């Protein structure tokens, strides 16, 4: 069997998307649709004492105004579980206000305009309580440290080390701003509740809403045909999901709510603030002997968001024999943080890969060489081999493409003719190689139509294109009439599509179901030859269609994982498996140009070399890496929520003030993908790329800023005022 790399090829849904025919959940037109909007709390902590809805209800076109009095006995609060179905709280089931912006009322009207106007007229009275908006303030609550990684004796090794680094790095609060806002549309009919929601976890919507409303899960379906940016924000029920569904059931009409962007900052998942103290010990010749990694992460007072740890990725990056990782949560009165692209790996890589750069300067050693010296073929934490270890190749190839050997290592020595300071920085990254169970049902019809019903969500990353490529490789069908149904609980049980495991789970499942179909067809019509039209072959048997189904377990998984997925629960494996440890790898090389007077930082050029296993589609994978680098540049130089500690309010809650990179901020991003199938992880050799793309990118920018200016900035974002 030879696996092919799909060359630069348009995504199969490109035409539909460009023509506006690819319908996102909130685009789907429904007869009799009602529009809903929530009323956000204007205090950060306390209780609702009264809600006067009279004026709002009097507004023409308003159908209902719901408050906690309507929903308290009507929407169950099911226990929040990590990565499970529920957000940390279900609003409008009691009078408690836990954060500014928490929904306190839901207005439903015939038009969006009427709903918005009426929402403005809802009068809410509160009893205000003291609160703490950020982890810097008195009243924040630090939990005890938890040890998340421990190997050898890091304290002793650090004590004995010839060279040490000890520094604290800070990550700002960052917010997702997907083009597709979060939304829920729900309707009730023929004994079924149907929910249209842009989500990466339709099963969570199905089972979570069923649990909240007290329905049998079999009576709820959730559909998420396309998602316009998910990246972790859309992993669980949103605060509005159950509210909108309940309203639709009570009113007997479809109800749609699209969360306005300003509210999104207060109600949807975001990357919380975190501080990272890194202590490194090394020998004079650059061998790392010890790390102590301690991190603090801001969290909501009541929330469940732990996620994976900061240590998980960085502890597997180099061969460091003594490692101690400790982490804790700092609780404040804020909205629930959550997953955001490379949730812990991005801030951890900024901290750790900055510290590595600092060590390189202390040792007077090239930072690429320092990383190569500490390469390893055994995972230091578990002692197991890696399924593939290509970090050195990423670094070496990146250095070559970038022209790294022309770098003068001393800070402030490389300048352009006009005096502009030039800085070159490097950083490395990794992201876990995970897998989920998947179900795939393939139906081939004599009339040329092929339907594939499969586990996984198309979130813009190009999963349908990757699936189609794999299907065509095993069993060429009529591509023009291929319909891939995913992100739909009616099509197949759905996993949470996150953690960069989507393509690596769906592509092998596609291979398996295509091979099963090939065998079934062969049984009917004899050996298939290259160029055979499978639809004609089927027609020759006088059958209108043929259907086969497979269930796939990820590496080391048992049937129990599949059962969990069928119940809408998380069911992921990796990166630590019985026999191996699996990661995707990346190295980023960044050039910054800094104006010596204004200290404005520009990023004209980035080279990123990644190993994501076999490349399923060069165009979509390259695009994912470029997107990840853009996020890295945004986090490094621009993005931060400005929380007003007096009100607990995010002041820059729109795209005018929450600054993200625009085209003019981004120069050339050259991406090379090693394209080495990782056949130990799955039969298709595919690993994730969506998140590894961002890991290390911000560190490479910060390291380049140091090289350009001689200023080591240990917090993100790095702004002009830090460099003056
Ligand atoms: Mo991702 S942050 O695991 O959706």
TrEMBL record:
Q: Which SMART domains match?
A: Ald_Xan_dh_C
Q: Which residues form the Aldehyde oxidase/xanthine dehydrogenase a/b hammerhead domain?
A: 19-130
Name the protein family.
Belongs to the xanthine dehydrogenase family.
Entry superkingdom: Bacteria
SUPFAM superfamilies for this protein: CO dehydrogenase molybdoprotein N-domain-like, Molybdenum cofactor-binding domain
Q: Which residues cross the membrane?
A: none
Q: Which UniProt keywords apply?
A: Molybdenum, Oxidoreductase
Checking Pfam families in the record gives:
Ald_Xan_dh_C, MoCoBD_1, MoCoBD_2
Coiled coil residues, start to end: none
The protein's name? Xanthine dehydrogenase family protein molybdopterin-binding subunit
Gene Ontology MF, one: iron ion binding
């Amino acid at each position: 069997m030879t696996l092919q790399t799909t060359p630069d090829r348009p995504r199969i849904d490109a035409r539909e998307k460009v023509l506006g025919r690819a319908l996102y959940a909130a685009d789907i037109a429904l007869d009799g649709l009602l529009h809903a909007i929530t009323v956000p709390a204007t205090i950060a902590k306390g209780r609702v004492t009264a809600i006067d809805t009279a004026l709002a209800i009097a507004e023409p076109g308003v159908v209902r105004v719901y408050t906690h009095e309507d929903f308290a006995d009507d929407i169950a609060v099911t226990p929040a579980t990590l990565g499970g179905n529920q957000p940390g709280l279900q609003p409008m089931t009691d009078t408690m206000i836990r954060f500014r912006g928490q929904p306190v009322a839901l207005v439903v009207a015939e038009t969006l305009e009427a709903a918005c106007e009426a929402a403005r007229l809802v009068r809410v009275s509160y009893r205000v309580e003291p609160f703490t908006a950020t982890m810097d303030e008195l009243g924040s609550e630090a939990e005890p440290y938890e040890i998340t990684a421990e190997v050898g004796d890091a304290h002793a090794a650090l004590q004995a080390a010839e060279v040490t680094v000890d520094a604290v790095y800070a990550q700002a609060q960052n917010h997702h701003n997907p083009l597709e806002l979060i939304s829920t549309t729900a309707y009730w009919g023929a004994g079924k509740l149907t929910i249209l929601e842009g989500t990466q976890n339709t099963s969570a919507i199905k089972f979570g809403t069923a649990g909240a409303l007290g329905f049998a899960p079999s009576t709820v379906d959730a559909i998420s045909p396309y998602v316009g940016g998910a990246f972790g924000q859309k992993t669980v029920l949103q605060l509005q999901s159950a509210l909108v569904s309940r309203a639709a059931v009570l009113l007997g009409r479809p109800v749609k709510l699209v969360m306005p962007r300003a509210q999104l900052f207060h109600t949807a998942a975001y990357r919380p603030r975190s501080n990272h103290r890194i202590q490194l010990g090394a020998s004079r010749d650059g061998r790392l002997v010890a790390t102590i990694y301690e991190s603090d992460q801001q969290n909501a007072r009541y929330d469940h968001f732990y996620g994976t740890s900061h240590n998980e990725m960085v502890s597997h990056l180099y061969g460091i024999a003594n490692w101690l990782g400790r982490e804790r949560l700092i609780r404040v009165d804020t909205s629930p943080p959550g997953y955001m692209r490379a949730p812990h790996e991005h801030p951890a890589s900024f901290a750790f890969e900055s510290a590595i750069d600092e060590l390189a300067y202390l040792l007077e050693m090239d930072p690429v060489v320092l990383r190569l010296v500490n390469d390893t073929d055994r995972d230091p934490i578990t002692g197991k081999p890696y399924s593939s270890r290509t970090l050195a190749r990423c670094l070496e190839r990146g250095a070559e493409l970038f022209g790294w050997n022309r770098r003068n290592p001393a800070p402030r020595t490389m300048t352009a003719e006009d005096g502009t300071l030039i800085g070159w920085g490097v950083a490395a990254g990794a992201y876990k190689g995970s897998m989920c169970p998947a179900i795939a049902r393939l139906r081939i019809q004599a009339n040329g139509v092929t339907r594939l019903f499969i586990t996984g969500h198309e979130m813009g990353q190009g999963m349908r294109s990757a699936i189609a490529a794999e299907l065509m490789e095993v069993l060429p069908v009529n591509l023009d009439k291929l319909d891939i149904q995913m992100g739909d609980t009616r099509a197949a049980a759905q996993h949470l599509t996150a953690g960069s495991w989507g393509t690596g789970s769906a592509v092998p499942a596609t291979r398996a179901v295509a091979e099963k179909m090939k065998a079934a067809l062969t049984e009917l019509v004899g050996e298939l030859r290259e160029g055979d039209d499978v639809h004609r072959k089927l027609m020759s048997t006088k059958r209108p269609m043929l259907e086969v189904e497979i269930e796939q377990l990820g590496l080391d998984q048992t049937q129990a994982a599949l059962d969990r997925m069928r119940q809408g629960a998380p069911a992921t494996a990796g990166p630590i498996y019985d026999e191996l440890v699996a990661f995707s790898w990346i190295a980023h090389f960044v050039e910054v140009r800094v104006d010596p007077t204004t200290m404005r930082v520009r990023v004209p050029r980035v080279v990123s070399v990644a190993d994501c296993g076999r490349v399923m589609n060069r165009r979509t994978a390259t695009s994912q890496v470029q997107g990840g680098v853009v996020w890295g540049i945004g986090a490094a130089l621009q993005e931060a929520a400005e929380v007003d500690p007096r009100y607990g309010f995010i002041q820059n809650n729109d795209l005018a003030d929450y600054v993200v990179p625009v085209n003019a901020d981004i120069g050339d991003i050259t991406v090379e993908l090693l394209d080495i199938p990782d056949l130990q992880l799955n039969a298709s050799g595919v690993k994730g790329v969506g998140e590894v793309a961002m890991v290390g990118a911000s560190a490479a920018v910060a390291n380049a800023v140091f090289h350009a200016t001689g200023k080591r900035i240990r917090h993100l974002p790095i702004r002009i005022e830090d460099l003056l």
